[in-house]
Amino acid sequence: MQASARTDVGLVRSLNEDDYLVGDGIFAVADGLGGHEAGEIASQMAIRILKEFKMPPEDDDPGVALTEALERVNRAVYRRSVDDPACEGMGTTLTVLLISGDRAYIGHVGDSRAYLVRDEKIHRLTEDHSIVGELIRMGMLSEPEARAHPQRNLLTRAIGTQPDVEIEVGYCKLGARDRFLLCTDGLSGAVDDSEILKVMASAEDPKSAVDQLVELAMRGGGRDNITAVAVFLDLP
Question: pLDDT at residue 165 above 70?
């Protein structure tokens, strides 16, 4: 298994409120929200807490352990937002990939994304917890329309904005040549899934993949912070 990550402030923002994790079998991206530097604090807190994640014993359910980890993150970020006036209202997206045994588990809140590229096809493993995401699922908005929608940045769910949050957790069986991508909306909002597929399927290694994807997002305007984590499997 190989992994690489890259983050960039983009061409418009002055502060990078994204953060990421490349760990031992656990990977994540977080996109902070909130005034001043509060978004940066929220995303950094989420990643810092996730770094303490311990793989569960063999008999335990990794999906349950991942859910509990994201619940801990949510409580910690929410407490900080309540206790620190400078952090009032802050939150973050959080999308996590956990590789355990022969499965990949995804834990997710917000509109960052997880993709799987397998057999020259791309599969989106997460749903956007956002206003435009809901409109797309109801058939009221197309993907191209969503990219320019005035409410495209409004989330329906985020880490740390409420004392409790509904966490989306799922899993898939691993394939021998699976390639995973975690990214914030600075990438997915600027680069079509078809372009992501081309890069992820053809890249020689994860570093080449994230470098190409970030550059594509920059060419697409770089209107937001851009973060990508690529994980390539090479199983027997």
Answer: yes
